[in-house]
Design brief:
heterodimer; A: mainly alpha; Rna Polymerase Sigma Factor, Chain: A; B: alpha+beta; Phosphorylase Kinase, domain 1; Protein Transport Mog1p, Chain A; seven-stranded antiparallel β-sheet
């Protein structure tokens, strides 16, 4: 059975189609949700609820499209909402960051620190301090490895907004890590990787 | 920041939080097999019932003098209910009806020149919306042009739509019209309600007692905005207002008509919705084409005529069906000449009845054979157990349940009451009825009744 057959099965009322989809995507979806919520149990509930929701209305899914972006969008949006409900809005003034919009990557993270458990904890803590939507774009781009164009299609925001959100998320993440006493390891040279992606307001 | 580095660290964090061994499917399958009160489909039913409840309240206000008087004394569009929870009850189910012939041509619009349309109080002429545009709860639905021809009042509509949205259908009656726009990518809906001039009460939209209503202007028109909606209450059986639900409503006055935009989704903001409202007019541009016919190779895209032409014979279809099932469409198998038609549950899109049929000579649809999971891996039509029954005095097979994959790849039979099937032959045809949906809604006797009505 492949994904297309599984969806066809589910649309025709066969639970085995759902079994295939769940087992193909559950781990990645739960991990993405856990990275955004910081709560594995909540991530599990959320992904389970998303599968149930999909099972309720499989006919709404356009079978000519790929299931993964469709489903991950549901999961990531639900994770964002969960975090937003749990915590007050992050106080970071995003407008100010937008004024300084730049497609250059912020200062890169040092290779040395991410290889240690301490670094994992620091990244985890730093991630938790990001506003939910910034956390989500980091997970979508760097964990699930969706392209910026795919993220745009999933989130429905303009490409420029996605780029800005990624930029500000990475800036904030780097800044939080620096604040956690890793300043000496930071590479002072910014990466130019994203410059080829387009103009500021693409 | 190097992409691979951040990916590596995110992977290690994620793996620590969610180990590989987690498997959600058993819990999901268990939830889906529980009675409707305990899983999502039950909630969908309660939502539907809740909407019907709200509709009944609206009708009470529209139709009764006391209701009209009450409503006219209120200036606000949205009316908070006195109680936080809405009590609902389950309707009797199913109700049987004569199955309509599926391939009726689209209803011709009743002629009413657009130039004569005003937003004056309707003259009292009542056209048969229910026959022509399906009323407010069931197909067939109409295009915007059709509904404008039927409605005795002006119906403005959007001239532009947000990304991924398209016009789906229009329905209504002589007091109000609803235009439905959908975003099938994100699974979102926009409902634009237009109430007849003078039907002030119809503009009363019920909201939770603690809902926040924001008054504002759209151009010179007074408008109100409210976010949230009714969701399942904590007691699991009633509805309760939840301000955080992904639903936004705007009501406003345009001429003598009241308009109501009801958005179920999260992609559009209030500003987006107001911008959308400002595109509305009566022009032909706003008569967006109805949702494109699905390509013939998509699921359930074929009409009965299409199938009959391909097969070179008439289809055998039921003449009696539960009221909640309607003809969705048909499809042909690719490797064997057998046809399937789908009668969808109009209240819950996942539930419905699939009827397959093939000539017995073709052996495309052979009888079920009993067997275990091992046998089911290599042979088709293997089921765990068969109940012998009769259709019109002839032997028939009834099966409840289906195979499910285990983690190790084995197949096990799961008789969760969710899937049931009836197989029989008639006049050289092999026929199979598979109903998928809430346990208890349709049982063996119901399938036999449907089968016996097939001609």
């Amino acid at each position: 059975m492949d994904e297309r057959e599984a969806i066809q099965d589910l649309k025709a009322g066969q639970l085995r189609g759902l079994a295939y989809l769940v087992r193909a995507h559950q781990t990645e979806a739960m991990r993405a949700a856990a990275l955004i919520t910081g709560d594995p149990a909540a991530a599990e509930d959320l992904v389970q609820a998303a599968f149930l929701r999909f099972a309720e209305k499989p006919q709404a899914f356009d079978s000519s499209r790929s299931f993964k972006p469709y489903f991950m969008k549901m999961v990531v949006n639900d994770a964002i909402k969960l975090v937003q409900r749990q915590k007050p809005e992050f106080s970071l003034d995003e407008k100010n960051l937008e004024d300084g919009f730049d497609l250059l990557d912020p200062k890169p993270l040092p290779e040395a620190i991410i290889e240690t458990r301490q670094a994992q904890e620091q990244v985890r803590a730093a991630l938790a301090k990001l506003p939910p939507k910034q956390r989500a774009v980091i997970v979508l781009r760097h964990y699930l490895e969706f392209s910026e164009s795919e993220i745009r299609d999933m989130i429905g925001s303009p490409l420029g907004t996605i780029k800005w959100r990624l930029f500000s998320a990475r800036t904030r993440l780097a800044s939080l890590l620096r604040a956690n006493a890793v300043e000496t390891s930071l590479d002072p040279e910014p990466s130019l990787a994203n410059q080829k992606d387009g103009a500021k307001n693409a | 920041m190097h992409k691979q580095e951040i990916k590596t660290v995110l992977q290690s964090i994620a793996q620590e939080m969610i180990p590989d061994r987690r498997d959600l499917y058993p819990a999901l399958a268990a939830q889906l097999s529980q009675p409707r009160e305990h899983h999502g489909l039950g909630r969908a039913r309660r939502w539907a019932v809740g909407l019907i409840f709200a509709g009944v309240l609206l009708l009470a206000l529209v139709l009764t003098p006391a209701g009209q008087s009450f409503a006219q004394s209120i200036l606000r569009f949205f009316t908070p209910l006195a109680s936080k929870q809405v009590l609902i009850s389950q309707p009797d189910y199913p109700e049987w009806v004569q199955a309509p012939k599926p391939d009726l041509p689209a209803p011709a619009p009743t002629l009413a020149p657009a130039a004569e349309k005003t937003d004056a109080v309707p003259s009292g002429e009542v056209k048969d919306f229910d026959a022509e545009c399906g009323g407010t709860t069931r197909p067939p639905y109409c295009s915007i042009a059709q509904i404008r021809a039927l409605a005795p009042f002006a119906v403005k509509a959007f001239t532009e739509l947000p990304n991924n949205f398209e016009f789906m259908d229009a329905s209504g009656n002589s007091n109000w019209v609803t235009l439905h726009y959908g975003n099938s990518v994100a699974g979102e809906s926009l409902f634009l309600g237009v109430h007849a001039p003078g039907v002030q009460a119809a503009s009363q939209i019920f909201i939770g007692m603690d809902a926040q209503v924001e008054s504002f202007q759209i151009g010179d028109a007074p408008a109100e905005y409210v976010a949230g909606g009714y969701g399942p209450a904590s007691n699991g059986s009633d509805l309760e207002w939840d301000g955080s639900l992904d639903r936004q409503q705007i009501a406003w006055q345009d001429g003598q008509s009241t308009y109501h935009l009801d958005y179920v989704g999260s992609e559009l903001s209030k500003t987006d919705l107001v911008s959308l409202i400002q595109t509305m007019d009566l022009s032909a541009k706003s008569e967006m084409p109805a949702k494109a016919e699905p390509a013939k190779n998509q699921a359930w895209a074929l009409s009965v005529s299409d199938l009959e032409t391909s097969l070179g014979r008439k289809l055998v279809l039921p003449s009696s069906l539960p009221e909640h099932l309607y003809f969705k469409g048909g499809q042909l198998s690719e490797d064997c000449p057998y046809a399937q038609v789908f009668y969808e549950n109009k209240e819950m899109f996942t539930n419905g009845l699939i009827i397959s049929q093939a000539s017995t000579e073709s052996n495309c649809l052979p009888p079920y054979v009993p067997g275990d999971g091992q046998k089911a891996k290599t042979e088709k039509r293997v089921v765990s157990s068969i109940t012998e029954t009769q259709v019109n005095g002839q032997s028939a097979q009834y099966v409840s349940g289906g195979w499910t994959y285990e983690n190790n790849g084995d197949l096990t039979w799961q008789d969760d009451g969710w899937t049931r099937a009836l197989y029989f032959t008639k006049d050289g045809l092999a026929l199979e009825l598979v109903y998928w949906g809430d346990p208890g809604a349709i049982g063996m006797a119901d399938l036999v009744r449907i089968a016996e009505s097939m001609q």
